[in-house]
Amino acid sequence: MIKLYGSNRSRALRNLWCLKELGVDYERDDRDHVSGEIKTDAYLAINPSGKVPSMTDHTGGGDVEMFECLAINLYLAMTYGKGTLWPDGAVSQADCLQWSMFSATEVEPHTVGALMERIFKPESMRDEAAALKHLEQLPRAFTVLEGVLGKQSYLCGKAFTIADLNVACVAASLHMVQFDFLAFPKVSAWLGACSGRPANQDVVAGNA
User: What is the pTM of this model?
Assistant: First the structure.
């Protein structure tokens, strides 16, 4: 059985979206990353960094324990989504890896930076100049995405894959800081299509 650790206030929501897309059975350990629940010895044995999300998968006698939400999603897609979230063919599979890393390196650092400065830090500690600096870095990444999505519906072609999920679950957070996607209509339409998928809508509804 797959077991996902992390509350609905964490990046575990990204993994919930993936699990719901795959339709596989799983258990939740809804531990709070703000409290000391992620500092116990038992949990640190799974994730030594003491963060969430983490996942274990003992299906079929396996012994998988891992952390990092985008890596978890790649594992789930490779293991349980062959032919769907994990597409057939080396080219498309390479694209899934590429875009997932693109999300982690080109989109998430600046997205998280802006969120920290505008939402998550105590109001007295927020730095709007720092938030703007992060947001100013994002058009370069979205220009790349706009070019690809101007040629095809999804990042690997005609079908939604883990590549789209892993980029969209990060980029969608920018709505929280009112990022203007006006200059990127293809990205905006694609993001709406990804976020509007029933599996993600179930996660959103459950988190409301």
Answer: 0.95
